[in-house]
Each structure stands twice: as structure tokens, then as C-alpha cells.
Amino acid sequence: MPYIAHDQFHQYYDKMSPVETQLYLRNLLVALKRVHDFNVIHRDVKPSNFLYNRKQQKFLLVDFGLAQDISRRRDVAFSFRDVALKKVPAEDRCWHWRWGRGESAG
């Protein structure tokens, strides 16, 4: 898992402008949509699992320890390593970095 320098949510949430809040939520939803496109649900979405670097405007969805592959059995949890290495094509493995810079998700 790559390291991303990030701020703690409680340090910045009340300082975010409406535009920055919209950017934050858009990137969270794009990250979740991308994970769902591979039939995986995160199951532990919370501010501490969506890292945000305000200065660089980078975002990273982390902690896939409770993630679940819904295309198979619904009671099997997969780790981030399983999801990243087996489900995601090589060219898409760094999607969170690409989208964090505001590039197109498509």
C-alpha cells in the first residue's frame, strides 16, 4: 500500500469550503464506485479510512480488511491485497492517485 501524507479529518472538516467538501465527497463516491465496479464492497467507510491530503488534493480509500467480494459468496471477506492483485487490472491499480488529482474517472 503506498503511503500518502494526510491530515486527520477532525483537523480540517470544519475548515472546508463548500467547493472543497464537494470535491472530497465526489472523490469518495468515485473511489467507492470503482471498487463496486469490481463487485467488491468496502464495509468500513469512515473518515479515517478515506485519506485526504489538502495541500496536494490527493485522496486514498484504505483499509479493505472487511471488504467483501459480492460476486461470490456474501460471507467471505477479502483483504486489500486480494482485491488489488486479483481483481483490478494492472493499468487500474493506481486509480485512487489518478482521480485524486482531479483527472477523469472514465
List keywords for this structure.
106 residues; alpha+beta; Transferase(Phosphotransferase), domain 1; two-stranded antiparallel ribbon; 4 strands; 11% strand; disordered C terminus
Topology:
Layout: H1 9-12, H2 18-37, E1 40-41, E2 50-53, E3 58-61, E4 68-69, H3 80-87, H4 95-100
Antiparallel strand pairs: 1-4, 2-3
Instruction: Indicate the overall shape.
Output: elongated
Q: Helix content range of the residues, please?
A: 25-40%
Query: How large is the share of residues in beta strands?
Result: 5-15%
| The CATH homologous superfamily | Transferase(Phosphotransferase) domain 1
Round the Cα radius of gyration to an integer and report it: 14 Å
CATH class: Mainly Alpha
The total number of structural domains is 1
Content-based structural category = alpha+beta
> Total number of helical segments?
4
What is the CATH fold-level name? Transferase(Phosphotransferase), domain 1
User: For the largest beta sheet, what order do the strands appear in spatially?
Assistant: 1-4
Under the CATH scheme, the architecture is Orthogonal Bundle
- Identify low-pLDDT runs: 90-106
Q: Let me know the number of strands.
A: 4
**Order of secondary-structure elements:** HHEEEEHH
Q: Tell me the span between the first and last alpha carbons.
A: 23 Å
Q: How would you sum up the major sheet? A: 2 strands, antiparallel
Oligomer: single chain
Mean pLDDT: 75
